[in-house]
Amino acid sequence: MKLHNSTKTPSPTTSNGGTDRRKILRSVGSLSVVVIAGCSSDGDDSGSSPVSRTDGSPESNESSERAKTDLDPAMLERRARNFLTLQSDGSFEAAHERLLTPTAADFSVTDMENSWQQIVTTSGEFESIVESEYQKRTDGAALVIVKTAFARVRNTFEVVLTRKGVQSYQITAQEEYSWEQPSYVDTSAFTETTVTIDATTSCELGGTLSLPPDEAQVPGLVIVHGSGPIDRDGTFGPNKPYKELSWGLPVVVSPYCGTTNGPTPVMLTVQT
Question: Where are the transmembrane segments (predicted)?
Answer without folding.
Answer: none
